[in-house]
Write a structure and sequence with these properties.
The chain has 412 residues and is an alpha/beta fold. Helices cover 30% and strands 22% of the residues.
């Protein structure tokens, strides 16, 4: 089978790259094993929240202070700013409504009521700036729903001057799920909340939120689109915002489906439940084809390939006792000296291994024996030179490198 571009990995970076190339009329295939980090999304994307433990207010201005090997430094300030300007309309085409500004971080509210910086947030989710406009909140908890912590949230909201009371609601549709605790999860509830079930939930919320300036509730509405959320907010009347739950994430699951639908609507091929197990690099330093676990006798050929397989979490990078490597092509991962320097024994300290990843040239082409592989590009968490966790930059790197590489490939 022959494509213009084959993408290895179907998470955030792989889907963004796939959609961007499909929009440019390329014939694209994404090979995706299944669950990605996007399924654990908080409903917000970070661009750059911290540098060496110091909060960042303006991510664009802060790019210049990053190490030379950081993906943003390789992109350059002007390219980062240009790519950022495209992100909100890009996601809007997939039915994903985001708010935020790359020149000024906002503050999202976590499931535990903490405030953390972010770049973009789904429109339905609360930011601290929005909540500061209100004086009295009602936190609506769903009976027997265990992945939401309203008392922690209420305590945290006091730090921004918002007094909140906690109430519980239920509806006949939700009651049916309660027969099994395994079904009382955000995604299970979301599947039921459509049509009359949304009307019933809105009525239940209105009964317990009289006198409140704002209503907060767990993100359980809108399983496969934003429409149920919009309907619920309209029916309740009082300003209503969602708060992220602990995983699995309704918002992340929905975004995964929305991006996939957009990709397939543009003609892309999404190979779900398969994974690339090997790739053939020819003597001229060009990837000739890749093989997958399911298509055992059929090579997948393409003019270009994108490695969007993720980091340690997505098994795009594999750690052994004395070696860290990329499993498809066998690239060695750049590490920091001997093994004792790979980690800090203080669990909460900055961990060196978190910034390990593939070494690439300025065009994000991985290096093999010191030379760039001509038609292979790496994006997202498989890249080295940054710490997604400590910097709060994982989504930003995934999105911007994917858009940039898609541009490079389209211009070839």
């Amino acid at each position: 089978m022959k494509y213009d571009t084959i993408i290895i990995g179907g998470g955030l970076s792989g889907l963004v790259a796939g959609v961007a190339l499909a929009e440019k009329k390329q014939k694209v295939a994404i090979v995706s094993l299944g669950q990605s980090a996007l399924h654990f999304s908080s409903g917000s994307f970070g661009l750059l929240g911290n540098i060496d433990g110091k909060p960042v207010d303006n991510p664009i201005e802060a790019v210049a202070a990053l190490p030379a090997a950081h993906p943003y430094r390789r992109l350059g300030v002007d390219t980062v700013m240009n790519l950022c300007s495209k992100v909100v309309p890009f996601f809007a085409e997939a039915g994903i409504t985001l708010k935020g500004d790359c020149a000024q971080n906002s503050v999202r509210v976590t499931p535990m009521g903490k405030c953390k910086s972010c770049w973009l947030t789904l429109d339905e989710f609360a930011t601290a700036g929005e909540l500061k406009k209100y004086k009295k909140a009602v936190i609506v908890s769903i009976s027997s729903f265990l992945d939401f912590y309203p008392d922690f949230l209420a305590a945290g909201l006091k730090s921004i001057g918002l007094e909140a009371s906690v109430v519980q609601v239920t509806t006949p549709e939700i009651d049916r799920l309660r027969r099994s605790t395994a079904e009382m999860r955000a995604t299970s509830i979301g599947r039921q909340l459509r049509g009359n079930a949304i009307v019933e939930l809105a009525d239940a919320i209105k009964k317990v939120s009289a006198g409140a300036d704002v209503v907060l509730m767990p993100a359980v509405a809108g399983f496969d689109s934003e429409e149920p959320v919009k309907e619920l907010r309209s029916l309740v009347g009082t300003p209503l915002f969602s708060i992220a739950t602990t995983p699995m994430s309704m918002a992340g699951t929905r975004m995964q489906m929305q991006l996939r639908r957009r990709f397939e609507a543009l003609g892309g091929t999404y190979m779900l439940g398969d994974n690339v197990v090997a790739g053939k690099i020819g003597g001229n330093g060009t990837v000739e084809y890749v093989d997958t676990a399911n298509l055992t006798e059929d090579h997948l050929y393409a003019e270009s390939f994108i490695l969007a397989s993720g980091g340690f979490f997505g098994h795009g990078i594999v750690a052994e006792p004395h070696r860290i490597y990329e499993p498809v092509f066998g690239f060695e991962v750049a590490t920091d000296g001997d093994r004792d320097k790979w980690f800090d024994r203080n669990f909460f300290a900055k961990q060196p291994y978190m910034s390990f990843g593939l070494d690439t040239d300025e065009s994000f082409r991985p290096l093999k024996d010191g030379k760039a592989v001509n038609n292979l590009y790496a994006v997202g968490a498989v890249l080295g030179g940054y710490d997604a966790l400590k910097e709060e930059s994982g989504a930003g790197v995934a999105i911007l490198t994917a858009l940039h590489v898609a541009d490079l490939i389209a211009k070839k």
